[in-house]
Amino acid sequence: MNTRQQLRLTQTQRLALNTSLQSSIAVLRMDASGLTRYLEEQAAENPYLRLGPAPEPQDWLPRWSGVFSGQGLGAAAELATAAPSLIAHVLAQIEALDLPPAQRPIALALVEALEPSGWLGSRPAAIAQDLRRPLAEIEAVLARLQQLEPAGLFARSLSECLLLQAKDAGVFSEAMERVLQNLELLASGDLARLARHAKLSEPQIRSCLAAIRSMNPKPGADFAADGPSQRRPPDLLVARVATGWSVTLNGASLPSLQVDASASGSAAALSAARAVAHMVQARNTTLLLAGREIVQRQQEALRLGPTALAPMSMADLAEALMLHDSTISRVVAGASLDTPHGTWWLRSLFSQALGGSESGGAVVSGAALRARLSLLIGAELRHAPLSDAALVLALAQSTGVTLARRTITKYRETLGIPAAYRRKRQLLPPLGEKGRSKG
Question: Is the pTM of this model over 0.85?
Answer without folding.
Answer: no
